[in-house]
Design goal:
- By secondary structure, the chain is mainly alpha-helical.
- It has one domain.
- Helix content is about 65%, strand content about 0%.
- Helix 1 (about 10-30) runs antiparallel to helix 2.
- The longest helix has about 35 residues, at about 340-375.
- The chain starts with 8 loop residues before the first helix and ends in a 14-residue tail after the last helix.
C-alpha cells in the first residue's frame, strides 16, 4: 500500500470561505438588486462570482493530487469505474435533492395560483421542459436549461463532464515536461480571454451561457498544472511561510475590491492554492480551526442549498401574501439601510450554515458512503481525499 498523501486542510477551509462568498454574492444579486455593497464603494461582493472559477481551479488541483498518478499507473476499466462512482456519489445525491426541492416549489406555485406573482424571468426558472437536462446533468450544455431550477447546479453539470475527460488529461499531463506545461498555462489564460470575448463580455468572466462549460474545463486544467508546479517545487521550504500566503491573499482581495480585470484575479487563484497547500505556519493553523474545517467540509451543501432556500422564502411570501402585486423578483427594499441589508445577509448566511449542516449529515455524507460501499468505489488505496 502506498503512503498516505497529507491532508491539505487549508484548501478545505478555503473552499468553505469561497462557498460563503458565493452565498453573499447571490443574496446581494438576487435579493438586494446589487445594493449590499454598491460598486461605487467596492466591487468585492460583485466580483465574488469568481469564486466559481476558484472552485474549478481547486478541483483540478485536487483531482490531480488524489487521482493523477493513479490513472498513470492503473489505467484500466476497474480504475475508471471506481473513480466515476466516487465522483457521482460526491455530486449527484445532493443535486437530486435540491432539484426535487425546486420542483416542489414549482408545484406549490402552480397549485396556489401564485405563479403570476413572479417576474417572467423567475417563472422561467421553473420550466419543467428543463427537468430531463437536470436529471442527466446536462443543464450546462442545453440552451434554456442554464437558468432553471437550482441555477448554481450548472457548474456541477460542467464539472461532472470534465471528470469524464480527467483520466485522459491526467495520462497526457504525466507525459509533458514543465516547459510545455508553462506554455499551456499561457494558452489557457488566452482561452479565458476568448471566453469573455465570445460571450460578449468586455470586462468580466461571469459567463454561464455559451461559455460556462469551457470556463470549467479551462479552470480545471489550470488547477492540474498548478499541482504539477506544487510537485516540482515541493522541496522549496521558503514557500511554507505564512507571509507569502497572506500577501497573495491581500493582493487578491484588493483586486476584487478595486474591480480590476478578472484575468488578474483568476491568475492569483493558482498562487493562493499553491501557497495554501505549501503553508505550515500561522495561516495553516488558523485555517485548521474547527469553524473553517466545518464550512469546508460542508462547502458543497452550502453551495447547493443556498439558492433553493432563497427561493423558498420568495415562494412562501407569494403564496401567503394578502396583496395582489405582480412581477416580484427581489426584496430590494431591504437595501434601504446598509445595516438592515447586512443584518439580513448575515442572518441568511447563518441559516444556510445551519441547513447545510443537516443536508451534509443526513443526505450528502450518508448517500456518498452508501453509493461508494454499494459499488465498491472510493479514493485510490492509501490516499486521503481532500476538499473535493
Amino acid at each position: 500500500m502506498q503512503s498516505k498523501s497529507p491532508y491539505l486542510s487549508s484548501l478545505t477551509a478555503m473552499r468553505g470561505i469561497a462557498a460563503l462568498m458565493v452565498v453573499v454574492y447571490h443574496f446581494s444579486k438576487i435579493v438586494l438588486d446589487d445594493e449590499l455593497l454598491p460598486r461605487t464603494q467596492s466591487s468585492f461582493v460583485q466580483k465574488s462570482y469568481l469564486m466559481v472559477d476558484f472552485f474549478f481551479i481547486l478541483s483540478g488541483f485536487i483531482m490531480a493530487y488524489v487521482y493523477g498518478t493513479w490513472f498513470v499507473k492503473k489505467c484500466n476499466a476497474h480504475a475508471f469505474r471506481q473513480f466515476f462512482v466516487a465522483r457521482f456519489a460526491r455530486l449527484y445525491p445532493l443535486h437530486l435533492f435540491t432539484l426535487g426541492w425546486c420542483v416542489l416549489l414549482k408545484i406549490l406555485l402552480q397549485v396556489s395560483g401564485a405563479m403570476p406573482g413572479l417576474a417572467p424571468k423567475l417563472q422561467e426558472m421553473y420550466n419543467f421542459k428543463a427537468l430531463p437536462a437536470h436529471l442527466l446533468l446536462l443543464n450546462a450544455f442545453i440552451p434554456g436549461a442554464w437558468f432553471t431550477f437550482n441555477v448554481p447546479s450548472w457548474s456541477v453539470s460542467a464539472e461532472w463532464y470534465t471528470y469524464l475527460v480527467f483520466p485522459l488529461l491526467a495520462w497526457l499531463a504525466a507525459r509533458q515536461g514543465m516547459l510545455l506545461k508553462i506554455v499551456l498555462v499561457v494558452l489557457l489564460y488566452t482561452a479565458y480571454w476568448g471566453i469573455i470575448q465570445y460571450a460578449g463580455h468586455n470586462y468580466d468572466l461571469n459567463v454561464t451561457a455559451y461559455g460556462g462549460v469551457m470556463r470549467c474545463l479551462v479552470g480545471f486544467c489550470v488547477g492540474m498544472i498548478t499541482f504539477a508546479g506544487y510537485t516540482a517545487l515541493r522541496q522549496w521550504n521558503g514557500m511554507k511561510r505564512s507571509v507569502w500566503l497572506m500577501l497573495a491573499g491581500a493582493i487578491t482581495l484588493w483586486g476584487m475590491h478595486a474591480g480590476v480585470s478578472d484575468m488578474f484575479i483568476v491568475a492569483m487563484f493558482p498562487v493562493l492554492i499553491f501557497l495554501a497547500a505549501r503553508n505550515t505556519g500561522a495561516m495553516a493553523r488558523l485555517l485548521n480551526r474547527r469553524f473553517f474545517q466545518m464550512i469546508g467540509e460542508q462547502s458543497y451543501s452550502i453551495y447547493m442549498i443556498h439558492v433553493p432556500l432563497m427561493s423558498s422564502f420568495l415562494v412562501g411570501w407569494l403564496v401567503f401574501r394578502t396583496e395582489k402585486s405582480v412581477g416580484v423578483d427581489n426584496a430590494s427594499a431591504l437595501a434601504l439601510s446598509p445595516a438592515i441589508a447586512w443584518s439580513a445577509c448575515l442572518a441568511y448566511a447563518l441559516l444556510v450554515l445551519v441547513l447545510s449542516t443537516l443536508t451534509f449529515r443526513y443526505i450528502e455524507k450518508p448517500m456518498r458512503h452508501w453509493l461508494n460501499s454499494r459499488f465498491r468505489a472510493g479514493a485510490p488505496a492509501g490516499q486521503v481525499v481532500v476538499a473535493g
